[in-house]
Inverse folding.
Protein backbone atom coordinates (compact mmCIF):
# COMPACT_ATOMS: atom_id res chain seq x y z
CA UNK A 1 0.00 0.00 0.00
CA UNK A 2 1.37 3.36 -1.00
CA UNK A 3 1.70 6.46 1.14
CA UNK A 4 -1.02 8.04 -0.96
CA UNK A 5 -3.59 5.44 0.05
CA UNK A 6 -2.45 5.43 3.67
CA UNK A 7 -2.79 9.20 3.80
CA UNK A 8 -6.29 9.05 2.30
CA UNK A 9 -7.45 6.45 4.81
CA UNK A 10 -6.03 8.39 7.75
CA UNK A 11 -7.66 11.62 6.60
CA UNK A 12 -11.01 9.91 6.09
CA UNK A 13 -10.81 8.40 9.56
CA UNK A 14 -10.00 11.77 11.10
CA UNK A 15 -12.87 13.39 9.21
CA UNK A 16 -15.24 10.74 10.54
CA UNK A 17 -14.18 11.56 14.09
CA UNK A 18 -14.83 15.27 13.47
CA UNK A 19 -18.18 14.43 11.86
CA UNK A 20 -19.15 12.45 14.98
CA UNK A 21 -18.29 15.44 17.15
CA UNK A 22 -20.29 17.71 14.86
CA UNK A 23 -23.38 15.52 15.00
CA UNK A 24 -22.93 15.11 18.75
CA UNK A 25 -22.92 18.86 19.29
CA UNK A 26 -26.21 19.34 17.41
CA UNK A 27 -28.36 18.64 20.49
CA UNK A 28 -25.91 20.50 22.73
CA UNK A 29 -26.11 23.76 20.79
CA UNK A 30 -29.91 23.59 20.79
CA UNK A 31 -31.28 27.03 21.67
CA UNK A 32 -33.77 27.29 24.55
CA UNK A 33 -36.52 28.29 22.15
CA UNK A 34 -36.27 24.96 20.33
CA UNK A 35 -36.37 23.03 23.60
CA UNK A 36 -39.41 25.04 24.66
CA UNK A 37 -41.23 24.24 21.42
CA UNK A 38 -40.37 20.56 21.86
CA UNK A 39 -42.26 20.68 25.15
CA UNK A 40 -45.15 23.03 24.26
CA UNK A 41 -45.77 22.17 20.59
CA UNK A 42 -44.72 18.55 20.37
CA UNK A 43 -45.36 17.44 23.96
CA UNK A 44 -42.25 15.26 24.16
CA UNK A 45 -42.03 16.00 27.90
CA UNK A 46 -43.90 17.87 30.60
CA UNK A 47 -41.22 20.48 31.14
CA UNK A 48 -37.71 21.35 30.00
CA UNK A 49 -35.82 19.61 32.85
CA UNK A 50 -37.71 16.42 32.02
CA UNK A 51 -36.88 16.82 28.32
CA UNK A 52 -33.22 17.33 29.10
CA UNK A 53 -33.24 14.20 31.22
CA UNK A 54 -34.93 12.29 28.41
CA UNK A 55 -32.24 13.44 25.96
CA UNK A 56 -29.51 12.67 28.48
CA UNK A 57 -28.48 16.32 28.56
CA UNK A 58 -28.50 16.42 32.37
CA UNK A 59 -25.32 14.34 32.61
CA UNK A 60 -21.84 15.89 32.52
CA UNK A 61 -20.71 16.46 28.94
CA UNK A 62 -17.91 13.85 28.97
CA UNK A 63 -20.33 11.14 30.14
CA UNK A 64 -22.76 12.17 27.38
CA UNK A 65 -19.99 11.90 24.81
CA UNK A 66 -18.82 8.55 26.15
CA UNK A 67 -22.36 7.13 26.08
CA UNK A 68 -22.94 8.42 22.54
CA UNK A 69 -19.72 6.92 21.23
CA UNK A 70 -20.33 3.65 23.12
CA UNK A 71 -23.83 3.34 21.65
CA UNK A 72 -22.63 4.21 18.15
CA UNK A 73 -20.04 1.47 18.35
CA UNK A 74 -22.86 -0.98 19.08
CA UNK A 75 -24.92 0.37 16.17
CA UNK A 76 -27.37 2.07 18.50
CA UNK A 77 -28.40 5.49 17.17
CA UNK A 78 -30.71 6.31 20.06
CA UNK A 79 -34.48 6.53 20.21
CA UNK A 80 -36.97 8.64 18.32
CA UNK A 81 -38.81 11.08 20.58
CA UNK A 82 -41.86 10.92 18.34
CA UNK A 83 -42.37 7.17 18.08
CA UNK A 84 -40.22 5.97 20.95
CA UNK A 85 -38.76 3.35 18.60
CA UNK A 86 -35.08 2.68 18.12
CA UNK A 87 -33.75 4.87 15.31
CA UNK A 88 -31.60 2.07 13.95
CA UNK A 89 -34.64 -0.12 13.37
CA UNK A 90 -36.60 2.78 11.85
CA UNK A 91 -33.83 3.88 9.51
CA UNK A 92 -32.71 0.43 8.34
CA UNK A 93 -35.63 -0.25 5.95
CA UNK A 94 -35.29 3.29 4.53
CA UNK A 95 -31.63 3.07 3.54
CA UNK A 96 -32.05 0.69 0.55
CA UNK A 97 -34.93 2.84 -0.80
CA UNK A 98 -32.87 6.03 -0.87
CA UNK A 99 -29.76 4.17 -2.02
CA UNK A 100 -31.63 2.75 -5.00
CA UNK A 101 -33.18 6.13 -5.82
CA UNK A 102 -29.77 7.80 -5.64
CA UNK A 103 -28.19 5.13 -7.80
CA UNK A 104 -30.94 5.50 -10.40
CA UNK A 105 -30.66 9.30 -10.38
CA UNK A 106 -26.91 9.13 -10.96
CA UNK A 107 -27.32 6.48 -13.68
CA UNK A 108 -29.92 8.52 -15.55
CA UNK A 109 -27.79 11.64 -15.19
CA UNK A 110 -24.75 9.90 -16.68
CA UNK A 111 -26.69 8.07 -19.37
CA UNK A 112 -28.02 11.43 -20.56
CA UNK A 113 -24.92 13.48 -19.82
CA UNK A 114 -21.94 11.49 -21.11
CA UNK A 115 -23.21 10.88 -24.69
CA UNK A 116 -24.33 14.51 -25.06
CA UNK A 117 -21.02 15.71 -23.64
CA UNK A 118 -18.98 13.52 -26.02
CA UNK A 119 -21.12 14.55 -28.97
CA UNK A 120 -20.71 18.23 -28.11
CA UNK A 121 -16.92 17.82 -27.89
CA UNK A 122 -16.65 15.94 -31.17
CA UNK A 123 -18.89 18.45 -32.94
CA UNK A 124 -17.26 21.43 -31.24
CA UNK A 125 -18.50 24.79 -32.50
CA UNK A 126 -21.42 23.37 -34.45
CA UNK A 127 -25.14 23.71 -33.84
CA UNK A 128 -25.10 20.43 -31.90
CA UNK A 129 -22.54 21.89 -29.51
CA UNK A 130 -24.60 25.06 -29.01
CA UNK A 131 -27.81 23.12 -28.44
CA UNK A 132 -26.21 20.79 -25.92
CA UNK A 133 -24.76 23.72 -24.03
CA UNK A 134 -28.11 25.48 -23.91
CA UNK A 135 -29.72 22.25 -22.71
CA UNK A 136 -27.15 21.93 -19.92
CA UNK A 137 -27.67 25.52 -18.82
CA UNK A 138 -31.44 24.98 -18.75
CA UNK A 139 -31.18 21.72 -16.83
CA UNK A 140 -29.02 23.42 -14.24
CA UNK A 141 -31.55 26.20 -13.69
CA UNK A 142 -34.73 24.16 -13.28
CA UNK A 143 -35.63 23.46 -9.64
CA UNK A 144 -36.26 19.73 -9.14
CA UNK A 145 -39.34 20.28 -6.99
CA UNK A 146 -40.95 22.41 -9.69
CA UNK A 147 -40.06 20.04 -12.51
CA UNK A 148 -41.59 17.16 -10.55
CA UNK A 149 -44.69 19.19 -9.67
CA UNK A 150 -45.18 20.30 -13.26
CA UNK A 151 -44.82 16.70 -14.39
CA UNK A 152 -47.53 15.55 -11.99
CA UNK A 153 -49.88 18.44 -12.79
CA UNK A 154 -49.59 18.45 -16.56
CA UNK A 155 -49.58 14.68 -17.01
CA UNK A 156 -52.91 14.62 -15.22
CA UNK A 157 -54.32 17.64 -17.09
CA UNK A 158 -53.19 16.61 -20.59
CA UNK A 159 -53.27 12.81 -20.40
CA UNK A 160 -55.58 12.24 -17.44
CA UNK A 161 -52.80 10.09 -16.02
CA UNK A 162 -50.67 10.35 -12.92
CA UNK A 163 -47.92 8.08 -11.63
CA UNK A 164 -48.88 6.07 -8.59
CA UNK A 165 -47.98 7.76 -5.32
CA UNK A 166 -48.75 4.65 -3.28
CA UNK A 167 -45.44 3.16 -2.23
CA UNK A 168 -44.70 -0.54 -2.65
CA UNK A 169 -41.63 -2.16 -1.12
CA UNK A 170 -39.13 -3.93 -3.35
CA UNK A 171 -39.61 -7.16 -1.42
CA UNK A 172 -43.38 -7.01 -1.88
CA UNK A 173 -43.41 -6.34 -5.64
CA UNK A 174 -40.07 -5.57 -7.35
CA UNK A 175 -41.63 -4.53 -10.66
CA UNK A 176 -44.11 -2.14 -9.09
CA UNK A 177 -41.33 -0.77 -6.87
CA UNK A 178 -39.15 0.02 -9.87
CA UNK A 179 -42.14 1.55 -11.67
CA UNK A 180 -42.61 3.92 -8.74
CA UNK A 181 -38.92 4.79 -8.69
CA UNK A 182 -38.79 5.38 -12.46
CA UNK A 183 -40.27 8.88 -12.63
CA UNK A 184 -38.41 10.40 -9.65
CA UNK A 185 -35.19 8.89 -11.00
CA UNK A 186 -35.78 10.39 -14.43
CA UNK A 187 -36.73 13.81 -13.03
CA UNK A 188 -33.78 13.78 -10.64
CA UNK A 189 -31.42 12.65 -13.37
CA UNK A 190 -32.18 15.63 -15.60
CA UNK A 191 -30.54 18.31 -13.41
CA UNK A 192 -27.76 15.83 -12.54
CA UNK A 193 -26.94 15.43 -16.23
CA UNK A 194 -26.27 19.16 -16.63
CA UNK A 195 -23.00 19.00 -14.74
CA UNK A 196 -22.03 15.78 -16.50
CA UNK A 197 -22.57 17.33 -19.95
CA UNK A 198 -20.35 20.32 -19.17
CA UNK A 199 -17.56 18.33 -17.58
CA UNK A 200 -17.55 15.55 -20.19
CA UNK A 201 -17.37 18.12 -22.98
CA UNK A 202 -14.49 20.04 -21.39
CA UNK A 203 -12.50 16.92 -20.56
CA UNK A 204 -13.00 15.35 -23.97
CA UNK A 205 -11.93 18.55 -25.71
CA UNK A 206 -8.80 18.63 -23.63
CA UNK A 207 -7.95 14.98 -24.28
CA UNK A 208 -8.76 15.08 -28.01
CA UNK A 209 -6.19 17.86 -28.43
CA UNK A 210 -3.38 15.65 -27.12
CA UNK A 211 -0.57 14.39 -29.32
CA UNK A 212 -1.34 10.72 -28.74
CA UNK A 213 -4.83 11.21 -30.11
CA UNK A 214 -3.40 12.81 -33.24
CA UNK A 215 -0.94 9.92 -33.54
CA UNK A 216 -3.74 7.38 -33.13
CA UNK A 217 -5.71 9.13 -35.88
CA UNK A 218 -2.66 9.43 -38.11
CA UNK A 219 -1.90 5.73 -37.93
CA UNK A 220 -5.41 5.13 -39.22
CA UNK A 221 -7.17 3.87 -36.13
CA UNK A 222 -10.96 3.80 -36.44
CA UNK A 223 -12.51 7.06 -35.18
CA UNK A 224 -14.59 5.11 -32.69
CA UNK A 225 -11.54 3.43 -31.20
CA UNK A 226 -9.72 6.77 -30.94
CA UNK A 227 -12.72 8.30 -29.22
CA UNK A 228 -13.33 5.58 -26.67
CA UNK A 229 -9.99 3.91 -26.09
CA UNK A 230 -7.77 6.99 -26.24
CA UNK A 231 -10.29 9.72 -25.50
CA UNK A 232 -12.76 8.55 -22.90
CA UNK A 233 -10.26 6.36 -21.07
CA UNK A 234 -8.02 9.35 -20.40
CA UNK A 235 -10.88 11.68 -19.55
CA UNK A 236 -12.22 9.26 -16.95
CA UNK A 237 -10.14 10.07 -13.82
CA UNK A 238 -11.56 13.61 -13.40
CA UNK A 239 -15.02 12.23 -14.21
CA UNK A 240 -14.72 9.96 -11.17
CA UNK A 241 -14.14 13.04 -9.01
CA UNK A 242 -17.32 14.60 -10.38
CA UNK A 243 -19.14 11.40 -9.45
CA UNK A 244 -17.98 11.91 -5.87
CA UNK A 245 -19.07 15.53 -5.83
CA UNK A 246 -22.46 14.57 -7.23
CA UNK A 247 -23.39 12.53 -4.19
CA UNK A 248 -24.24 15.79 -2.41
CA UNK A 249 -26.48 16.88 -5.28
CA UNK A 250 -28.14 13.49 -5.33
CA UNK A 251 -28.85 13.63 -1.59
CA UNK A 252 -30.54 17.01 -2.13
CA UNK A 253 -32.54 15.63 -5.05
CA UNK A 254 -33.57 12.57 -3.07
CA UNK A 255 -34.87 14.67 -0.16
CA UNK A 256 -37.02 16.73 -2.53
CA UNK A 257 -38.21 13.89 -4.79
CA UNK A 258 -39.08 11.62 -1.88
CA UNK A 259 -41.25 14.43 -0.58
CA UNK A 260 -43.01 15.05 -3.92
CA UNK A 261 -43.49 11.36 -4.77
CA UNK A 262 -44.31 10.22 -1.22
CA UNK A 263 -41.42 7.73 -1.07
CA UNK A 264 -40.64 6.71 2.53
CA UNK A 265 -36.84 6.93 2.33
CA UNK A 266 -34.17 8.68 4.40
CA UNK A 267 -34.94 12.08 2.89
CA UNK A 268 -38.55 11.96 3.97
CA UNK A 269 -37.50 10.65 7.35
CA UNK A 270 -35.27 13.64 8.06
CA UNK A 271 -37.90 16.08 6.79
CA UNK A 272 -40.56 14.59 9.05
CA UNK A 273 -38.14 14.49 11.97
CA UNK A 274 -37.02 18.11 11.43
CA UNK A 275 -40.65 19.25 11.16
CA UNK A 276 -41.56 17.39 14.36
CA UNK A 277 -38.40 18.60 16.09
CA UNK A 278 -37.42 15.00 16.69
CA UNK A 279 -33.75 15.95 17.01
CA UNK A 280 -32.27 12.58 17.96
CA UNK A 281 -33.48 11.34 14.55
CA UNK A 282 -32.14 14.44 12.76
CA UNK A 283 -28.81 13.92 14.47
CA UNK A 284 -28.65 10.26 13.50
CA UNK A 285 -29.41 10.96 9.84
CA UNK A 286 -26.86 13.77 9.71
CA UNK A 287 -24.28 11.35 11.01
CA UNK A 288 -25.28 8.61 8.57
CA UNK A 289 -25.33 10.81 5.47
CA UNK A 290 -22.03 12.47 6.38
CA UNK A 291 -20.42 9.06 6.96
CA UNK A 292 -21.69 7.95 3.56
CA UNK A 293 -20.21 11.07 1.97
CA UNK A 294 -16.82 10.54 3.59
CA UNK A 295 -16.81 6.93 2.42
CA UNK A 296 -17.71 7.96 -1.13
CA UNK A 297 -14.91 10.50 -1.22
CA UNK A 298 -12.49 7.90 0.06
CA UNK A 299 -13.62 5.50 -2.67
CA UNK A 300 -13.17 8.26 -5.26
CA UNK A 301 -9.65 8.96 -4.02
CA UNK A 302 -8.73 5.28 -4.16
CA UNK A 303 -10.24 4.91 -7.64
CA UNK A 304 -8.44 8.04 -8.79
CA UNK A 305 -5.16 6.58 -7.66
CA UNK A 306 -5.95 3.41 -9.56
CA UNK A 307 -6.98 5.20 -12.77
CA UNK A 308 -4.20 7.75 -12.71
CA UNK A 309 -0.86 6.23 -11.64
CA UNK A 310 0.71 9.69 -11.39
CA UNK A 311 -1.45 10.42 -8.36
CA UNK A 312 -0.72 7.09 -6.69
CA UNK A 313 3.03 7.38 -7.11
CA UNK A 314 3.17 11.02 -6.06
CA UNK A 315 3.71 12.44 -9.57
CA UNK B 1 -11.17 61.03 -28.29
CA UNK B 2 -9.33 61.19 -25.02
CA UNK B 3 -9.39 58.25 -22.73
CA UNK B 4 -10.96 58.94 -19.36
CA UNK B 5 -8.18 58.83 -16.84
CA UNK B 6 -7.91 55.88 -14.52
CA UNK B 7 -6.84 56.36 -10.92
CA UNK B 8 -3.36 55.08 -11.63
CA UNK B 9 -2.08 57.46 -14.30
CA UNK B 10 -0.76 60.42 -12.38
CA UNK B 11 2.18 61.35 -14.56
CA UNK B 12 1.96 62.69 -18.10
CA UNK B 13 4.70 60.33 -19.32
CA UNK B 14 2.61 57.27 -18.63
CA UNK B 15 0.59 55.73 -21.40
CA UNK B 16 -3.10 56.38 -20.75
CA UNK B 17 -4.54 53.47 -18.78
CA UNK B 18 -7.96 52.43 -20.06
CA UNK B 19 -10.55 53.85 -17.71
CA UNK B 20 -13.29 51.94 -16.02
CA UNK B 21 -15.92 52.93 -18.56
CA UNK B 22 -13.81 51.70 -21.44
CA UNK B 23 -12.99 48.48 -19.66
CA UNK B 24 -16.66 47.78 -19.10
CA UNK B 25 -17.49 48.72 -22.68
CA UNK B 26 -14.83 46.34 -23.95
CA UNK B 27 -16.08 43.57 -21.66
CA UNK B 28 -19.62 44.02 -22.97
CA UNK B 29 -18.40 43.83 -26.57
CA UNK B 30 -16.60 40.58 -25.81
CA UNK B 31 -19.52 39.04 -23.97
CA UNK B 32 -21.41 36.31 -25.84
CA UNK B 33 -25.03 36.91 -26.81
CA UNK B 34 -26.31 34.50 -24.21
CA UNK B 35 -24.48 36.35 -21.45
CA UNK B 36 -25.81 39.70 -22.65
CA UNK B 37 -29.36 38.39 -22.89
CA UNK B 38 -29.07 36.88 -19.43
CA UNK B 39 -27.75 40.16 -18.08
CA UNK B 40 -30.52 42.17 -19.73
CA UNK B 41 -33.33 39.96 -18.42
CA UNK B 42 -31.67 39.92 -15.03
CA UNK B 43 -31.59 43.72 -15.02
CA UNK B 44 -35.34 43.74 -15.71
CA UNK B 45 -35.93 41.29 -12.84
CA UNK B 46 -33.82 43.32 -10.44
CA UNK B 47 -35.66 46.46 -11.45
CA UNK B 48 -39.03 44.73 -11.05
CA UNK B 49 -38.01 43.50 -7.60
CA UNK B 50 -36.82 46.96 -6.55
CA UNK B 51 -39.97 48.61 -7.85
CA UNK B 52 -42.35 45.91 -6.57
CA UNK B 53 -44.06 48.29 -4.10
CA UNK B 54 -44.79 50.67 -6.98
CA UNK B 55 -45.63 48.36 -9.87
CA UNK B 56 -47.35 45.46 -8.10
CA UNK B 57 -51.05 45.83 -8.92
CA UNK B 58 -52.19 44.34 -5.60
CA UNK B 59 -51.00 43.91 -2.04
CA UNK B 60 -49.19 40.52 -2.09
CA UNK B 61 -50.79 39.38 1.15
CA UNK B 62 -54.25 40.82 0.67
CA UNK B 63 -56.72 37.98 0.29
CA UNK B 64 -60.04 38.41 -1.41
CA UNK B 65 -62.36 35.47 -0.85
CA UNK B 66 -64.51 36.43 -3.84
CA UNK B 67 -61.51 36.20 -6.15
CA UNK B 68 -60.21 32.76 -5.15
CA UNK B 69 -58.42 30.53 -7.69
CA UNK B 70 -59.09 32.74 -10.69
CA UNK B 71 -57.26 31.63 -13.81
CA UNK B 72 -54.93 34.14 -15.50
CA UNK B 73 -56.95 37.07 -16.86
CA UNK B 74 -56.68 40.77 -17.66
CA UNK B 75 -56.80 42.00 -14.07
CA UNK B 76 -54.82 39.11 -12.56
CA UNK B 77 -52.11 38.29 -15.13
CA UNK B 78 -50.94 35.15 -13.37
CA UNK B 79 -54.28 34.35 -11.69
CA UNK B 80 -55.01 34.19 -7.98
CA UNK B 81 -54.27 31.58 -5.33
CA UNK B 82 -56.48 29.65 -2.91
CA UNK B 83 -56.77 32.72 -0.64
CA UNK B 84 -57.54 35.06 -3.53
CA UNK B 85 -54.10 36.70 -3.52
CA UNK B 86 -52.75 38.05 -6.80
CA UNK B 87 -49.95 35.73 -7.95
CA UNK B 88 -48.26 38.32 -10.17
CA UNK B 89 -47.90 40.70 -7.22
CA UNK B 90 -46.66 37.87 -5.01
CA UNK B 91 -44.01 36.95 -7.56
CA UNK B 92 -42.83 40.55 -7.83
CA UNK B 93 -42.55 40.81 -4.05
CA UNK B 94 -41.07 37.33 -3.84
CA UNK B 95 -38.27 38.50 -6.15
CA UNK B 96 -37.31 41.10 -3.56
CA UNK B 97 -36.83 38.44 -0.89
CA UNK B 98 -35.17 35.92 -3.17
CA UNK B 99 -32.72 38.31 -4.82
CA UNK B 100 -32.04 40.22 -1.61
CA UNK B 101 -31.52 37.08 0.45
CA UNK B 102 -29.30 35.42 -2.15
CA UNK B 103 -27.17 38.56 -2.40
CA UNK B 104 -26.80 38.56 1.37
CA UNK B 105 -25.91 34.85 1.40
CA UNK B 106 -23.30 35.26 -1.30
CA UNK B 107 -21.73 38.25 0.46
CA UNK B 108 -21.71 36.64 3.90
CA UNK B 109 -20.42 33.26 2.72
CA UNK B 110 -17.69 34.95 0.67
CA UNK B 111 -16.61 36.88 3.78
CA UNK B 112 -16.52 33.77 5.93
CA UNK B 113 -14.72 31.72 3.28
CA UNK B 114 -12.14 34.45 2.63
CA UNK B 115 -11.39 34.89 6.33
CA UNK B 116 -10.87 31.17 6.87
CA UNK B 117 -8.83 30.80 3.68
CA UNK B 118 -6.53 33.76 4.34
CA UNK B 119 -5.84 32.83 7.97
CA UNK B 120 -5.33 29.15 7.18
CA UNK B 121 -3.30 29.71 4.02
CA UNK B 122 -1.14 32.53 5.38
CA UNK B 123 -0.10 30.93 8.64
CA UNK B 124 0.26 27.48 7.11
CA UNK B 125 1.88 24.67 9.11
CA UNK B 126 0.04 23.51 12.20
CA UNK B 127 -2.59 26.27 12.07
CA UNK B 128 -3.44 25.27 8.53
CA UNK B 129 -3.46 21.59 9.40
CA UNK B 130 -5.92 22.07 12.26
CA UNK B 131 -8.18 24.49 10.40
CA UNK B 132 -8.27 22.28 7.34
CA UNK B 133 -9.30 19.23 9.37
CA UNK B 134 -12.25 21.25 10.66
CA UNK B 135 -13.06 22.27 7.10
CA UNK B 136 -12.96 18.56 6.20
CA UNK B 137 -15.64 17.89 8.79
CA UNK B 138 -17.55 21.00 7.79
CA UNK B 139 -17.86 19.99 4.15
CA UNK B 140 -18.39 16.32 4.99
CA UNK B 141 -22.00 16.99 5.94
CA UNK B 142 -24.32 17.01 2.94
CA UNK B 143 -25.18 20.71 2.74
CA UNK B 144 -28.91 20.36 2.21
CA UNK B 145 -29.46 17.93 5.10
CA UNK B 146 -27.35 20.12 7.36
CA UNK B 147 -29.40 23.15 6.32
CA UNK B 148 -32.68 21.47 7.18
CA UNK B 149 -31.33 20.29 10.53
CA UNK B 150 -29.92 23.68 11.54
CA UNK B 151 -32.88 25.73 10.34
CA UNK B 152 -35.26 23.44 12.18
CA UNK B 153 -33.13 23.85 15.30
CA UNK B 154 -32.78 27.64 15.12
CA UNK B 155 -36.27 28.26 13.74
CA UNK B 156 -37.04 29.38 10.19
CA UNK B 157 -36.67 33.13 9.77
CA UNK B 158 -35.17 35.31 7.06
CA UNK B 159 -32.08 35.97 9.19
CA UNK B 160 -31.50 32.36 10.24
CA UNK B 161 -31.89 31.06 6.69
CA UNK B 162 -29.33 33.57 5.41
CA UNK B 163 -26.81 32.87 8.17
CA UNK B 164 -27.09 29.08 8.07
CA UNK B 165 -26.95 28.92 4.28
CA UNK B 166 -23.88 31.18 4.23
CA UNK B 167 -22.06 28.99 6.70
CA UNK B 168 -22.84 25.73 4.93
CA UNK B 169 -21.69 27.21 1.60
CA UNK B 170 -18.50 28.82 2.85
CA UNK B 171 -16.62 25.58 3.57
CA UNK B 172 -16.12 24.45 -0.01
CA UNK B 173 -15.35 27.95 -1.20
CA UNK B 174 -12.67 28.45 1.47
CA UNK B 175 -10.88 25.39 0.08
CA UNK B 176 -10.52 26.89 -3.38
CA UNK B 177 -9.48 30.27 -1.98
CA UNK B 178 -6.92 28.74 0.37
CA UNK B 179 -4.96 27.18 -2.46
CA UNK B 180 -4.78 30.56 -4.16
CA UNK B 181 -3.69 32.27 -0.92
CA UNK B 182 -0.84 29.76 -0.68
CA UNK B 183 0.30 30.71 -4.20
CA UNK B 184 0.08 34.45 -3.49
CA UNK B 185 1.95 34.03 -0.20
CA UNK B 186 5.03 32.79 -2.04
CA UNK B 187 5.44 36.07 -3.96
CA UNK B 188 8.64 37.91 -3.16
CA UNK B 189 6.95 41.16 -2.13
CA UNK B 190 5.11 39.30 0.63
CA UNK B 191 8.39 37.88 1.80
CA UNK B 192 9.83 41.40 1.72
CA UNK B 193 6.97 42.68 3.82
CA UNK B 194 7.64 39.94 6.32
CA UNK B 195 11.35 40.65 6.34
CA UNK B 196 10.86 44.32 7.11
CA UNK B 197 8.70 43.21 10.00
CA UNK B 198 5.20 44.02 8.81
CA UNK B 199 2.42 42.89 11.07
CA UNK B 200 0.80 39.59 9.86
CA UNK B 201 -2.66 41.14 10.00
CA UNK B 202 -1.41 44.00 7.83
CA UNK B 203 0.15 41.59 5.34
CA UNK B 204 -3.05 39.60 5.14
CA UNK B 205 -5.23 42.65 4.62
CA UNK B 206 -3.00 44.90 2.55
CA UNK B 207 -1.06 42.42 0.44
CA UNK B 208 -2.86 39.08 0.22
CA UNK B 209 -6.51 40.09 0.31
CA UNK B 210 -6.39 42.43 -2.73
CA UNK B 211 -4.78 39.63 -4.74
CA UNK B 212 -7.57 37.15 -4.14
CA UNK B 213 -10.52 39.55 -4.24
CA UNK B 214 -11.15 39.00 -7.98
CA UNK B 215 -11.27 35.24 -7.42
CA UNK B 216 -13.61 35.72 -4.45
CA UNK B 217 -15.94 37.88 -6.53
CA UNK B 218 -16.00 35.39 -9.38
CA UNK B 219 -16.58 32.36 -7.16
CA UNK B 220 -19.27 34.18 -5.21
CA UNK B 221 -21.18 35.57 -8.19
CA UNK B 222 -21.11 32.28 -10.06
CA UNK B 223 -22.79 30.69 -7.05
CA UNK B 224 -25.72 33.10 -6.93
CA UNK B 225 -27.92 31.02 -9.22
CA UNK B 226 -27.37 27.99 -7.03
CA UNK B 227 -28.26 30.00 -3.93
CA UNK B 228 -31.57 31.06 -5.47
CA UNK B 229 -32.32 27.38 -6.17
CA UNK B 230 -31.48 26.30 -2.63
CA UNK B 231 -33.56 29.14 -1.13
CA UNK B 232 -36.55 28.13 -3.24
CA UNK B 233 -36.10 24.42 -2.41
CA UNK B 234 -35.95 25.23 1.30
CA UNK B 235 -39.09 27.35 0.95
CA UNK B 236 -40.81 24.49 -0.83
CA UNK B 237 -39.96 22.07 1.99
CA UNK B 238 -41.09 24.53 4.66
CA UNK B 239 -37.62 25.41 5.95
CA UNK B 240 -37.15 28.68 4.11
CA UNK B 241 -38.33 32.20 4.65
CA UNK B 242 -41.59 31.54 6.54
CA UNK B 243 -45.07 32.46 5.23
CA UNK B 244 -46.94 34.69 4.73
CA UNK B 245 -43.88 36.27 3.12
CA UNK B 246 -44.34 35.68 -0.61
CA UNK B 247 -41.43 33.35 -1.29
CA UNK B 248 -41.24 31.60 -4.69
CA UNK B 249 -40.54 28.11 -3.40
CA UNK B 250 -43.15 28.16 -0.65
CA UNK B 251 -45.81 29.31 -3.15
CA UNK B 252 -45.79 25.71 -4.46
CA UNK B 253 -46.13 24.01 -1.10
CA UNK B 254 -48.40 23.77 1.90
CA UNK B 255 -52.09 24.44 1.34
CA UNK B 256 -51.48 25.49 -2.28
CA UNK B 257 -50.59 21.87 -3.13
CA UNK B 258 -54.19 20.77 -2.62
CA UNK B 259 -55.25 23.03 -5.49
CA UNK B 260 -52.50 22.74 -8.10
CA UNK B 261 -54.26 20.01 -10.07
CA UNK B 262 -57.30 22.20 -10.67
CA UNK B 263 -55.36 25.48 -10.76
CA UNK B 264 -52.05 24.85 -12.54
CA UNK B 265 -51.10 28.55 -12.45
CA UNK B 266 -50.47 28.30 -8.70
CA UNK B 267 -47.40 26.18 -9.47
CA UNK B 268 -46.45 27.22 -13.00
CA UNK B 269 -45.59 30.90 -12.56
CA UNK B 270 -43.52 30.83 -9.34
CA UNK B 271 -41.48 27.98 -10.83
CA UNK B 272 -40.97 29.88 -14.08
CA UNK B 273 -39.78 32.86 -12.07
CA UNK B 274 -37.22 30.69 -10.26
CA UNK B 275 -36.02 28.97 -13.44
CA UNK B 276 -35.65 32.21 -15.40
CA UNK B 277 -33.85 33.97 -12.57
CA UNK B 278 -31.39 31.13 -12.07
CA UNK B 279 -30.90 30.80 -15.82
CA UNK B 280 -30.11 34.49 -16.26
CA UNK B 281 -27.84 34.59 -13.20
CA UNK B 282 -25.89 31.60 -14.52
CA UNK B 283 -25.68 32.85 -18.11
CA UNK B 284 -24.58 36.33 -17.07
CA UNK B 285 -22.07 35.50 -14.36
CA UNK B 286 -20.60 32.58 -16.30
CA UNK B 287 -19.75 34.89 -19.19
CA UNK B 288 -18.41 37.53 -16.82
CA UNK B 289 -16.14 34.87 -15.34
CA UNK B 290 -15.00 33.70 -18.76
CA UNK B 291 -14.10 37.27 -19.75
CA UNK B 292 -12.22 38.00 -16.55
CA UNK B 293 -10.36 34.71 -16.52
CA UNK B 294 -10.88 32.16 -19.29
CA UNK B 295 -8.93 29.54 -17.34
CA UNK B 296 -11.68 29.45 -14.72
CA UNK B 297 -14.22 28.08 -17.17
CA UNK B 298 -16.28 25.43 -15.47
CA UNK B 299 -15.16 26.10 -11.91
CA UNK B 300 -17.12 27.25 -8.94
CA UNK B 301 -20.27 25.23 -9.39
CA UNK B 302 -21.00 21.56 -9.17
Amino acid sequence: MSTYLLQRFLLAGLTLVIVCFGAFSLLRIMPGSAAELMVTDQGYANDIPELRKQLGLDEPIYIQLWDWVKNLARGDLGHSLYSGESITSEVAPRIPITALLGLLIVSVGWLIGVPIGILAAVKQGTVIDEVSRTVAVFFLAVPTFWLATMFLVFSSIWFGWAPSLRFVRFTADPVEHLKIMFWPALLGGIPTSAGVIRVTRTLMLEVLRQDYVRTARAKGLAPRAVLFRHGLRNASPPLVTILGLQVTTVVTGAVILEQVFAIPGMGRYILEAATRRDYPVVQAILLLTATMLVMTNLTVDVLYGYLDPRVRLGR
Amino acid sequence: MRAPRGPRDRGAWEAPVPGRVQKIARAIRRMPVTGLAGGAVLAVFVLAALLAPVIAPYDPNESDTLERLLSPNASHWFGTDQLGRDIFSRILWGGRYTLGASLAVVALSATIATTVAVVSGYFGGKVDLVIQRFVDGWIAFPAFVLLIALISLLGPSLRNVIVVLSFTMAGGMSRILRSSVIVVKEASYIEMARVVGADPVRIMFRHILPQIVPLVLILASVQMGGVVLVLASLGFLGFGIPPPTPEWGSMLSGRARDFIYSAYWLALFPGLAITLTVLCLNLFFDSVRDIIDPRMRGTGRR
